[in-house]
Write a structure and sequence with these properties.
heterodimer, A: 110 residues, globular, B: Alpha-Beta Plaits, five-stranded antiparallel β-sheet, rod-shaped
Chain lengths: 110, 263
């Protein structure tokens, strides 16, 4: 319950405050969001599997975001930032889909 | 595993609902809050400022390159079209000037050849001939005198009615360079270009009124000459006279234009 409230609160804050993204962060923010979404879906699946662990979630969340950002940063330095961020999004998207499928199987038993 | 799945779903709900506050829970809440915040900000910035604001540097460079080459191409096209336009406008300008010049020359030549009416300041010179002694050479002298004085367009009228001061029907002839004056004593008049004119005669002249009237009045000139033959010359200056008689233009039978004069 508390995480859900925190999520809603964050969304509301982001919508109402309308902060501008620093230009240095602009390429990384969407990737970070996708990576965090992957961690959250993974956490929900783990919870349904009964193997959820708070610490694992925190560590995976932070490391997901950091690694995704690092990969994109590296790609930018190598001149393939665009392609690499596309790749990261594709991989994370696949993971999100498979997690969502597992969650669906738990909830709807189908 | 499959048997207690409903229990797990229930436990998941309980986990969400159970109010327990450990450090890890706070961390989870903070992270999820951050996620929501970041997602909302990202959505906002994507919607708000379009594609360019969130585009990467290299993409921007490529877009800029595309735009630069495209603007170069368009600028070249503008230059080409401007040149064409200038050529067309200057061409049509020259053409218009040529047409206007040709029309002006046609007017001038028309006045000289007697094919167009002429109007301007001038004089009316009435020559009465009660004794039928004013012959063709007297009128020709008068005409030459007026031409010397700068007459530009002349018509000669006959059968002037003193009351209405108008010429009789068919009694007006445009006088041009080739006009002939022939005595016709049997008819009591003068044939001008074949048209019989009867006295009194009247010249309608476009030219400087003062010069022409002075030229007619010099001692031993036209006025005296007509006076010796029993006639009277009356010169009336007008600010505007109309030389309205026209002359059909004969097509030269033999002479043909020989192109531009060489010098």
């Amino acid at each position: 319950m508390i995480p859900a409230i925190a999520l809603a609160l964050g969304v509301a804050l982001g919508l109402f405050l309308e902060p501008t993204v620093p230009s240095a962060l602009q390429p990384y923010l969407p990737i970070a969001v996708v990576a965090a979404l992957d961690a959250v879906f993974g956490a929900v699946r783990a919870q349904l599997d009964g193997i959820f662990d708070d610490r694992v979630f925190v560590v995976s969340f932070v490391s997901n975001v950091l690694v995704a950002g690092l990969v994109v940063f590296l790609g930018d330095q190598l001149g393939v930032g665009g392609q690499l961020s596309t790749g990261v999004v594709v991989v994370l998207g696949i993971r999100i889909f498979s997690n969502a499928a597992a969650i669906r199987r738990h909830v709807f038993r189908a | 595993m499959t048997a207690d799945r409903p229990g797990r779903v229930r436990r998941f709900g309980r986990v969400l609902l159970r109010p327990r506050l450990r450090r890890v829970d706070v961390a989870v809440a903070v992270l999820l809050g951050l996620l929501g915040f970041a997602a909302a900000v990202q959505v906002r910035s994507t919607q708000g400022s379009g594609l360019l604001a969130s585009a990467r540097q290299e993409d921007l460079v490529r877009i800029l390159d595309d735009l630069t080459s495209r603007s170069t191409r368009l600028r070249q096209e503008v230059a080409t079209l401007t040149t064409t336009q200038e050529r067309l406008t200057s061409g049509s300008g020259q053409e218009q000037a040529a047409v206007a010049e040709a029309r002006r020359r046609a007017q001038v030549l028309g006045v000289l050849a007697g094919t167009v009416p002429a109007r301007g300041p001038g004089v009316l010179v009435t020559v009465s001939d009660p004794e039928h002694k004013v012959s063709a050479d007297v009128l020709l002298d008068a005409l030459e005198e007026m031409r010397d004085a700068g007459a530009e367009a002349v018509q000669l009228e006959g059968s002037i009615d003193p009351a209405s001061n108008t010429a009789g029907p068919g009694q007006a002839v445009r006088v041009v360079a080739s006009t002939s004056f022939v005595d016709d004593s049997s008819a009591g008049g003068i044939r001008v270009d074949g048209t019989l004119l009867l006295p009194p005669y009247r010249f309608v002249v476009v030219g400087d009124p003062a010069t022409i009237s002075a030229a007619l009045a010099i001692p031993g000139g036209v006025t005296d000459n007509v006076g010796q033959r029993g006639g009277r010359t009356v010169v009336v200056r007008r600010d505007s006279v109309l030389v309205g008689a026209l002359r059909a233009l004969d097509r030269p039978r033999y002479a043909r234009p020989a192109g531009q004069p060489s010098g």
